[in-house]
Structure prediction request, 298 residues.
Amino acid sequence: MVKSMTGFGRAGKQSENFKVTVELKAVNHRYLETLFRMPRVFAYLESKLKKSIAEQIKRGRIECAITIEGNKATKEKLVINWDLADEYIRFMRQATQRYQMEDALNIQELLLDPRFLEIVESSELDSELEHLLLEATFAAARRLDEMREAEGNELALHFKHHLDTVAELLEAIQTYIPEMESTYRDKLENRLLSYVGEDFDKALVLSEIAIMLEKSDINEEIERLGSHIKQFSHIILRSEPIGRKLDFLIQEMNREVNTIGSKASHLEITNRVVELKTTLEKIARTNSKRRVIFQAVC
Prediction:
């Protein structure tokens, strides 16, 4: 199936103590690249989160935003700078003895000084919160994938509609080929009659007509263009990236259409060629702006 490279997925998980929300936004990228926007203390979980996303998303640039509500998300602990505190106390005792002062040490004041004591967050999440975060990330990735699939289905219908138009225009062009050949033959005979009258070599005329018709023959281009249409329809069903392949096929289809336009000097065929170019431009614009990729659903 066809999947779009762009999409958005959002999921939330909640427990008695925490509420976790994960938002994923995807844009086109050659490989899978995941960027996180979350508190720094959660950085050690990035590898697990990336793995959870990669189970469902194979390509794209993924921006992951995480918000957490509830009780303190991380554990806190006291950190004391014992070396500095020891040095400070030794100095105060020496100063007290040197200047015959009363003991000025006050442990409570010492510990309130942020130079000696601070409260820091631990580097590990509460196990309950970690579980919620992984679950929410997986659910958000699933919803992102579902959105990309839904958009991809719309793209496939869009492509099919335009491919049907191309096929119809080709059929119309084929119906005008006998008329075009007859017109070429009549023009050549009329020119010869106007220049030399009835006295001309019939065999030579037939030979010239054959050469001219061969130069203006567009059956081969029509056949190749029809083959490209079939390839296009088959490619969007393959289990591999298809964006670049479609780009190449569109270029080849445009080349065949341009050749038909340069060979066929027929008003109706020229009009159909213009319509073909317009339709192919619509296909190319869709493929470039909303790049698509086939992915197996995990």
Observations:
- The first strand starts at residue 2 and ends at 4.
- The chain has three domains: 2-73+126-145, 74-123, 153-294.
